[in-house]
């Protein structure tokens, strides 16, 4: 739809769109409110500016031109005012810069012709183009590009104002900017509506409507808005159920959203509206508008739930590993210690010294030697100590794996459901870790089904498609 003056006039009859907060609206369009330092900055004129002022025929028109130049330097905008209505400090500052004894007539109003003449001269002096409707198509095209990046009226307004400043075009009136943005947003809604009408089949529509057609007071959609409060099994069971519900719809959203040509920022915006509006509101909107909000909501919410499951898996793994290592360290230290290690070391030393004791005869029979040894340490104690010394030292990793075996029920309860639900990906096609993940899922699935499963010699290359159920397909 070409942007014309008629479109602007038609839009102006509608309720005005808020595009800037009050503070920003005043910053861009409010009458300058200068302090003493700013008056020195903006009301100090160079030779070209003084030359333009001097061309005016009367004191009143000169003062008016000087004020208009200063205000333009402050705001890059022109204002209609009378000398009687401007701040007295501004007027007094300007009069001090003119060495004239002529009395200023505050009630004097410059003619419309003089106003436009000064405006053209000042714009030309600073290299600006005065706004006219011929710039409407240019500004409208810019708005159409911007709305696909961010549909927020405030963002579009700032982009248009920045574009005008860069091109040195004096910005139009605030209402004109409102109408341009309002018209752009309306056209974007029609564009998306038309796209969705082309893309959505009846099956897609029914699938999306299932999210809001719920007779329960607390609908599934409302429940899905809540993030988990912990990574415990109860909360993660709820997250996995959400994940299962949203998975087929996520695939739909992932397929359709690129065709709509909207940014991630806009997807997040539309998704937030599904959170903001009640189900009653969503049912009252145009179908395509509701579908758009739901598609974006599903897309963003699925990703968030997926992140929650990954975070939960990481949390539970770290928690279990920490506990296992702590228990393994304790057991490892216990194995290294004895009831009285100093006493045992002394006794072992005494037993060894029997072999080099000069007071014992070489002709002494072995039975007598053993009697001497038993005086140092009891027979069973010597046997137990010898066997312990001959034992192979226990590896710490063996102890850890033993502790993992003992904690197997916790792995099955906390980790397996998360592991099976998460859709692992890799940037590398033949990633060995990803192959291991796939292989592990196949084995767990096989155990769950209590049936033998042939694993090919190609390292168990299978792909699992996890939605509500598990389907196995050879790669």
Q: How many beta-strand elements?
A: 2
- Uncertain spans: 1-14, 215-219, 451-475
Strand fraction band?
under 5%
User: Which structural class do you get from the secondary structure elements?
Assistant: mainly alpha
Helix percent band:
55-70%
Strand order of the largest sheet: 1-2
Q: How many domains make up the coordinates?
A: 5
- Kindly, what is the distance between the CA atoms of the first and last residues, rounded to a whole number of angstroms? 49 Å
Topology record:
Layout lengths: L4 H8 L9 H8 L6 H7 L4 H8 L4 H17 L12 H9 L15 H14 L10 H14 L3 H15 L6 H26 L2 H8 L10 H5 L8 H28 L3 H13 L2 H6 L2 H50 L4 H13 L12 H11 L2 H12 L5 H11 L1 H14 L10 H18 L12 E5 L3 E5 L1
Helix pairs in contact: 1-10, 4-5, 5-7, 8-9, 8-10, 9-10, 10-16, 13-16, 13-21, 14-16, 16-20, 16-21
Could you characterize the architecture of this molecule?
By secondary structure, the protein is an all-alpha fold. The chain has five domains: 5-20 and 133-198, no CATH class; 31-125, no CATH class; 202-301, no CATH class; 338-391, no CATH class; 424-474, no CATH class. The protein has helices at residues 5-12, 22-29, 36-42, 47-54, 59-75, 88-96, 112-125, 136-149, 153-167, 174-199, 202-209, 220-224, 233-260, 264-276, 279-284, 287-336, 341-353, 366-376, 379-390, 396-406, 408-421, 432-449; strands spanning 462-466, 470-474. A two-stranded antiparallel sheet has the order 1-2. Strand 1 and strand 2 (470-474) form a beta hairpin. Helix 14 crosses helix 16. The longest helix is centred in the middle third of the chain and has 50 residues, at 287-336. The chain is elongated. The chain starts with a helix and ends with a strand.
């Amino acid at each position: 739809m070409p942007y014309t003056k008629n479109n602007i006039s038609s839009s102006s009859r509608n309720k005005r769109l808020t595009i800037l907060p009050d503070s920003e609206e005043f910053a861009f369009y409010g009458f300058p409110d200068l302090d003493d330092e700013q008056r020195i900055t903006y009301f100090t004129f160079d030779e070209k500016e003084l030359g333009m002022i001097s061309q005016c025929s009367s004191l009143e028109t000169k003062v008016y031109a000087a004020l208009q130049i200063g205000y333009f330097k402050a705001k890059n905008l022109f204002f209609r005012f009378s000398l009687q209505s401007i701040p007295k400090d501004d007027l007094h500052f300007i009069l001090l810069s003119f060495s004239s004894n002529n009395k200023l007539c505050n009630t004097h109003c410059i003619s419309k012709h003089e106003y436009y003449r000064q405006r053209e001269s000042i714009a030309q002096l600073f290299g600006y183009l005065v706004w006219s409707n011929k710039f409407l198509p240019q500004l409208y095209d810019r708005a159409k590009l911007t709305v696909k990046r961010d549909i927020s009226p405030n963002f579009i307004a700032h982009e248009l104002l920045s574009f005008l400043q860069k091109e040195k075009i004096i910005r139009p009136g605030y209402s004109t900017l409102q109408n341009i943005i309002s018209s752009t947003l309306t056209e974007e809604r029609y564009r998306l509506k038309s796209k969705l009408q082309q893309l959505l089949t009846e099956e897609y529509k029914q699938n999306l409507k299932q999210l809001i057609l719920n007779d329960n007071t607390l609908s599934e959609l409302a429940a899905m808005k809540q993030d988990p409060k912990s990574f415990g099994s109860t909360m993660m069971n709820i997250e996995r159920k959400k994940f299962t519900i949203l998975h087929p719809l996520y695939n739909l959203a992932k397929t359709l959203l690129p065709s709509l040509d909207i940014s991630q920022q806009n997807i997040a915006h539309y998704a937030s509206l599904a959170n903001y509006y009640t189900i009653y509101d969503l049912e009252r909107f145009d179908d395509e508008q509701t579908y758009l909000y739901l598609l974006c909501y599903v897309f963003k919410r699925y990703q968030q739930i997926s992140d929650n499951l990954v975070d939960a898996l990481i949390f539970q793994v770290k928690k279990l590993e920490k506990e296992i290592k702590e228990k393994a360290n304790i057991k490892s230290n216990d194995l290294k210690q004895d009831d009285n290690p100093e006493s045992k070391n002394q006794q072992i030393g005494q037993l060894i010294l029997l072999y080099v004791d000069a007071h014992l005869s070489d002709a002494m029979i072995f039975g007598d030697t053993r009697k001497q040894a038993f005086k140092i340490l009891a027979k069973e104690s010597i046997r137990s100590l010898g066997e312990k010394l001959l034992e192979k030292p226990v590896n710490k990793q063996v102890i850890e794996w033993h502790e993992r075996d003992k904690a197997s029920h916790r792995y099955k309860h906390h980790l397996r459901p998360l592991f099976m639900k998460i859709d692992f990906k890799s940037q590398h096609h033949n990633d060995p870790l990803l192959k291991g993940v796939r292989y592990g899922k196949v084995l767990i699935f096989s155990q769950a089904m209590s049936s033998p499963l042939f694993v090919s010699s190609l390292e168990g290359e299978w792909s699992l498609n996890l939605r509500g159920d598990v389907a196995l397909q050879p790669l």
